Predict the 3D structure of the following.
Amino acid sequence: MEYQRRLADGRLQQLLADFPAVMISGPRAAGKTTTARQVAAETVSLDSPADSAAFKADPDDALRGRREPLLLDEWQEVPEVLGAVRRAVDSDPHPGRFIVTGSVRGELENRVWPGTGRFIRMSMYGLTEVEMQTTLDKQSVGFLDKVASSDVSAFARGQSRPRLRDYLELATRGGFPEVALRPLSQAARSTWLESYISQVITRDAIAVMPRGDPQKMRAYFEALALQTAGTPLDKTLIDAAGIGKDAAAGYEGLFENLFLTERLPGWSKKAFSRFTELPKRYIVDPALAANSAHVGLQGILGDSDLLGRTLDTFITAQLRPLWSLSAPRVKPYHLRTKGGRQEIDLLLETEDKKVLAFEFKASSAPSAHDARHLLWLRSLLEDQLVAGAVMHTGPDVFRLSDRVLALPISTIWGA
């Protein structure tokens, strides 16, 4: 199969030009190894007995004379290789020497981490629509930059665009390359997703937390899936899963380390004490969320709460690689006032404290009423708010107010 270009390609090349060793982290089956192979001069698959024998015997000697960048895949099968990389980098720190990929499980199982200060981390997630539906061009202006310009002319207009059902079909397909790039039926995709979460829990999660109960882990993950894109209290999730407080905290931390879930912190500043710090919880892949919640497309369409959660999870999955690969760094938040009178689905704050804000609406014709929380935020932050956008399911791009746009969700990938 022809390589599907990724948003991470340019970032990986940039990091290799500046640093000697890069570690790519992310969920299983997100395409990390495939992406790394595109720039590696040589690949060593450490889960292969033939490739790993020399590294198990003498990892330092096995590294010598290899073509660089050298990709060390499935490093957790020979953890000693990280120490050898550290020593090699200490001896010769020129850029572009090593790329390391593998299971996050291995890192969690190793109490002593030899990579501190030697490896630069880069996160990768599942495929996004901008990767699947467009030709990635280094010269093209990215979506976040277009929003920051607050210029409606920066976005294509007059095109045939997806509607609500189309977006939900994309959401329930998900971004794992194995299912996103193959013409599978919904039943086959569901089978793959079920197998995926079962294997991650029974193999990776239990390997890291051997005293954990797989059934309770699964129950807690399903409780999270039903609450994806929400701000549930811990007690709500604990009661739904039927587990204890300590177990829930351990399981959620483990799911985050395995890149299955994510918590967006509440945007809370001392000057705005009425903002809540309650995190917004996400299942990282929307199809995994829907499948784990045991709900299909028709069920989502028939439940307004699930519809909103699914759409939010899908849009956030499209934007997550944009902020995680951003340089300089961008930090993601959500905003909710105490009592829930004002809510903003996503805030992205730059290093110079400038803010982009987004609202997600299952509406084909958003109005100023749908933007009222963005307008409230603009009055509160003044020039600190660069721009805001109501992301909607309709076809039109238009201005709702100064620095506040109405944008179809598909403008994220240029459609």
